[in-house]
């Protein structure tokens, strides 16, 4: 559901000409890659952007068995709703992913799920554009194990490959993204801002599942919207602060998915200093992020009127 709001946010900027949303590849994680692609294509269609190319990426991580989360995101990843798009009608697999990358020109990559598809691109010998990743925990509790955040746990090897690749990665970890929440009152504001956009009517039943999940785990009747704020940070549309760091991802054992960082200039375990491979976001203007999401919704509404 947080991925859906990220797509709604990007759709508003796209129709206003502030960005070009070049394409979407769906990664297996919250649900299967095929279903995630159908969900993404459906959300974009409900935003009036059915022409954006969407593909299902790799069906599973390369080194570990796929785990999905129907308890968190609903049976098909969209809460109490089901996407009105047939997953089998969308391009899928390594060939589709390679074709998408070959057809679009992108100067930014925003990874809001496991890094499976990004790592596949790296293994093909290509370099990635400037990349922003939602994932990891740094001096902060995990949401999957005591040590690990979900995206980093689902495919830790892919996350490790990304950080070891030399790609410039901006990292939006749980410590930052969990602060951007939507409750029923703000959801009402968002729906009002979207006005005639068809996706507005679907959001209550989609997010109700997420509200109920967060209440069940003691967070309150709200939803943490990790991915929309990640997009804002990637695009520089919200104020944030960040620190260069050297990131390491554990790939095996009980600490699978744990992310640790040596902040720039700090001593490493070998006694030297770390060469940074990432920029870790430390803080974000949450009020500004909420206002930015409403601004984008208003842009999308104006486009469809």
TrEMBL record:
Residue ranges constituting the Inosine/uridine-preferring nucleoside hydrolase domain according to the UniProt record: 1-288
Basic and acidic residues biased stretches: 249-265
Keyword tags: Glycosidase, Hydrolase
Location of region: Disordered: 249-274
GO (cellular component) term, any one: cytosol
GO BP: purine nucleoside catabolic process
Single GO molecular function: purine nucleosidase activity
InterPro entries the record matches: Inosine/uridine_hydrolase_dom, IUNH, Ribo_hydro-like
Name the UniProt record assigns to this protein: Inosine/uridine-preferring nucleoside hydrolase domain-containing protein
Originating species: Corynebacterium frankenforstense DSM 45800
């Amino acid at each position: 559901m947080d991925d859906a709001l990220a797509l709604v946010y990007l759709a508003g900027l796209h129709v206003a000409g502030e960005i070009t949303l070049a394409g979407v590849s769906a990664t297996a994680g919250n649900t299967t890659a095929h279903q995630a692609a159908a969900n993404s294509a459906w959300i974009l269609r409900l935003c009036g952007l059915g022409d954006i190319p969407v593909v299902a990426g790799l069906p599973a991580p390369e080194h570990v068995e796929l785990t999905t989360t129907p308890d968190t995101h609903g049976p098909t990843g969209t809460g109490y709703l089901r996407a009105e798009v047939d997953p089998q009608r969308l391009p899928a697999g390594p060939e589709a992913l390679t074709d998408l990358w070959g057809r679009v020109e992108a100067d930014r990559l925003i990874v809001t799920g496991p890094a499976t598809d990004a790592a596949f691109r790296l293994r093909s010998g290509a370099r990635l554009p400037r990349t922003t990743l939602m994932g990891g925990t740094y001096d902060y509790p995990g949401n999957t194990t005591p040590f690990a955040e979900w995206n980093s746990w689902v495919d830790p090897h892919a996350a490790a490959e990304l950080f070891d690749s030399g790609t410039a990665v901006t990292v939006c970890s749980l410590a930052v993204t969990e602060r951007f929440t939507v409750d029923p009152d703000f959801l009402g504001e968002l729906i009002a801002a979207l006005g005639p956009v068809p996706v507005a009517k679907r959001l209550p039943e989609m997010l109700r599942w997420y509200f109920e999940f967060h209440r069940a785990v003691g967070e309150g009747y709200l939803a943490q919207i990790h991915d929309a704020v990640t997009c804002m940070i990637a695009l520089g549309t919200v104020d944030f602060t960040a620190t260069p760091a050297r990131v390491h991802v554990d790939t095996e054992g009980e600490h699978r998915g744990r992310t640790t960082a040596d902040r720039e200039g700090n001593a490493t375990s070998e006694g030297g200093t770390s060469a940074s491979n990432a920029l870790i976001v430390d803080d974000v203007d949450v009020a500004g992020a909420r206002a930015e999401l409403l601004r984008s919704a208003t842009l999308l509404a104006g486009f469809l009127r």
